[in-house]
Automatic annotation (TrEMBL):
InterPro entries per record: Ala_racemase/Decarboxylase_C, DAP_deCOOHase_LysA, De-COase2_CS, De-COase2_N, Orn/DAP/Arg_de-COase, PLP-binding_barrel
Keyword tags: Amino-acid biosynthesis, Decarboxylase, Lyase, Lysine biosynthesis, Pyridoxal phosphate
Span of domain Orn/DAP/Arg decarboxylase 2 N-terminal: 40-296
Assembly with partners or alone: Homodimer.
Residues annotated for pyridoxal 5'-phosphate binding in this entry: G248, E290, P291, G292, R293, Y390
Native source species: Fictibacillus solisalsi
UniProt cofactor(s): pyridoxal 5'-phosphate
Protein name: Diaminopimelate decarboxylase
Catalytic-site annotation from UniProt: C361
Gene name tied to this protein: lysA
Pathway terms, separated by semicolons: Amino-acid biosynthesis; L-lysine biosynthesis via DAP pathway; L-lysine from DL-2,6-diaminopimelate: step 1/1
Enzyme class: lyase
Molecular-function GO term, any one: diaminopimelate decarboxylase activity
Modified residue annotations for N6-(pyridoxal phosphate)lysine: K66
UniProt family annotation: Belongs to the Orn/Lys/Arg decarboxylase class-II family. LysA subfamily.
Length: 441
C-alpha cells in the first residue's frame, strides 16, 4: 500500500492520517467521509512557491479552486499566501465569504454571465481571464457603464495537446476554451483589448490539459506562444507583463502514474521563458501558474463502509460501499483509477481480487473495477486514496443521496469543515404543489 503524505499504519493496524485514526474518525463523523491531509496541502503549496523564489522570478501561484472549494480550504490557501482562481459566481462568493483578498482572485470561465462579471467588478477582483469576444465586449461595456477600470489576461489556445485523457484536453486547436493563435483570433483580441480605455491587458494565459507527467508540452506551448509574442511586440508594441502557464501538473493515483516534483515543472518553464525572453530582447514577464489537483488531489482520502457483496463464480466478486458516483463521479466520467485499502485492517496483504461498487442505481457506478483486498467483511472501512480533487467539488445528490462530510486533519487535530447533508437538506429548495394541484387546474 502506498502511503501518501502523513499517512501511516498504527499499532491497531488502522490507517492514520495527520496523526489521527481514520477508523475512529469514520465512527465519529459517519461514512462516506472525505478526509484532507492539511500538512500535505501546505507542503505542496510551499514547494510551488519556493520553486520560483530560488530562481528569483516574480510569480503568482494561484490555487484552482474548482478542484475543491469550501470556506476552510479557501482560508488555508490564503494562509499559504497563494492567489485564487475561480470559475463561477459561486466560487467567487465562497472566496469573498472566506475573507480572501479580492485583489488576488482571478476569474476564469468560458461563459461568464453579465451578473457574474458585474459581481466580480464590484468586488474589485485582481484579474479576469477573458475567454472569448463575447466576454471581452461585455466586460468592456460594463466597465464603461460603471466607470470602472479592470485588468485582464487573454486565454490563448496554443494548439498543443498534452498526453492526457481526451475529455480533459484544453490546449488543442479544437477547444471550447480561448482565442486561437493560428486563425488570428488571438491577435484580434489583443488589438481590441489594447484599444479599450477601460481594460488593462496584463498578459496572456494558456492551459494545455490535466494530469501531465512531463514538461515537453509546456515547453512546446511556450515556444509557440513566443513566436506570436515577438510578432505582437514588433507590430502592436505589446509584450505581456504576465504570462500565465496554467496548471495540469499530475499526481500519483496508481503505481503507473509517475508525476514530477513541483520544482521540475517550474524549472523547465522558467528556463524556457528566460531563454526566449533573452533571445527576443524583452524582460522576463511575471509568471503565474494554476495548480489545483496537484495541491489537494493526493491529500484527500474517502472512507466508506463496506456493505453487501455479490460473488459470481469464475466471473467477479463485487464489494459494495455506502457511496459511489454521488461522491466521486470521476470513475464513471473519466474512467479514473484509484488505489484503496481496508482502513481498519490496513497492514493486511490483499489476497482476493474484487471490484468495488457504489450504491447508486446505475450499473456504471463502480469505484474500482479490479483490486486486491483482504477478505472484506460487512462493516469494514474502505479507504480510497487521492480523492481530494474533483470528489467533493463534483459530488451530487443523485438518488437523493446526501453529500458526505469533510474533515481536515493536521498534527493530531481534526476539524469538521463541511457538515454532512441531511435528508432535510435535500428538501430545502423543494416546493410542494398548492392544494395538491397545479394552479389553474
Amino acid at each position: 500500500m502506498y502511503l501518501h503524505g502523513t499517512s501511516s499504519i498504527n499499532e491497531d493496524n488502522h490507517l492514520t492520517i495527520g496523526g489521527l485514526d481514520t477508523v475512529q474518525l469514520a465512527q465519529k463523523y459517519g461514512t462516506p467521509l472525505y478526509l484532507y491531509d492539511v500538512e500535505l496541502i501546505r507542503q505542496r503549496a510551499r514547494a510551488f512557491k519556493k520553486a520560483f523564489e530560488v530562481q528569483g522570478i516574480k510569480a503568482q501561484v494561484a490555487y484552482a479552486s474548482k478542484a475543491f472549494s469550501c470556506l476552510a480550504q479557501v482560508q488555508l490557501v490564503a494562509e499559504e499566501g497563494l492567489s485564487l482562481d475561480v470559475v463561477s459566481g459561486g466560487e467567487l462568493y465562497t472566496a469573498l465569504a472566506a475573507g480572501f483578498p479580492a485583489e488576488r482572485i482571478h476569474f476564469h470561465g468560458n461563459n461568464k454571465s453579465y451578473d457574474e462579471l458585474q459581481y466580480a467588478l464590484k468586488s474589485g477582483i485582481g484579474c479576469f481571464v477573458v475567454d472569448n469576444f463575447h466576454e471581452l465586449h461585455m466586460l468592456n461595456e460594463l466597465c464603461e457603464k460603471t466607470n470602472t477600470q479592470t485588468s485582464i489576461l487573454l486565454r490563448i489556445t496554443p494548439g498543443i495537446e498534452a498526453h492526457t485523457h481526451e475529455y480533459i484536453l484544453t490546449g488543442q486547436e479544437d477547444s471550447k476554451f480561448g482565442f486561437d493563435l493560428q486563425n488570428g483570433q488571438a491577435e484580434k483580441a489583443v488589438t481590441e483589448a489594447l484599444d479599450s480605455e477601460a481594460i488593462t491587458l496584463l498578459g496572456v494565459h494558456f492551459h494545455i490539459g490535466s494530469q501531465i507527467f512531463e514538461t515537453a508540452g509546456f515547453i512546446l506551448a511556450i515556444q509557440k506562444l513566443y513566436d506570436y509574442l515577438a510578432k505582437w511586440n514588433n507590430e502592436l508594441s505589446f509584450f505581456p507583463e504576465v504570462l500565465n502557464l496554467g496548471g495540469g501538473f499530475g499526481i500519483r493515483y496508481t503505481e503507473e502514474d509517475k508525476p514530477l516534483e513541483p520544482k521540475e515543472y517550474i524549472e523547465a518553464m522558467i528556463n524556457e521563458v528566460t531563454r526566449l525572453s533573452a533571445s527576443n530582447s524583452v524582460s522576463i514577464p511575471e509568471i503565474w501558474i494554476e495548480p489545483g489537483r496537484s495541491l489537494v488531489g493526493d491529500a484527500g482520502t474517502t472512507i466508506y463502509s463496506v456493505g453487501s457483496q455479490k460473488d459470481i463464480p469464475s466471473v467477479r466478486h463485487y464489494v459494495s460501499v455506502d457511496g459511489g458516483m454521488s461522491d466521486n463521479i470521476r470513475p464513471a466520467l473519466y474512467q479514473a483509477q484509484y488505489e484503496a485499502a481496508l482502513a481498519n485492517r490496513a497492514g493486511e496483504k490483499g489476497t482476493k481480487k474484487v471490484s468495488v461498487a457504489g450504491k447508486c442505481c446505475e450499473s456504471g457506478d463502480m469505484l474500482i473495477w479490479d483490486i486486491l483486498l483482504p477478505e472484506a467483511r460487512t462493516g469494514d472501512y474502505l479507504a480510497v486514496f487521492c480523492t481530494g480533487a474533483y470528489g467533493y467539488s463534483m459530488s451530487n445528490n443523485y438518488n437523493r443521496i446526501p453529500r458526505p462530510a469533510v474533515v481536515f486533519v493536521e498534527n493530531g487535530e481534526e476539524q469538521l469543515v463541511v457538515k454532512r447533508e441531511t435528508y432535510e437538506d435535500l428538501l430545502r429548495q423543494d416546493l410542494p404543489l398548492k392544494n395538491g394541484v397545479l394552479a389553474g387546474n
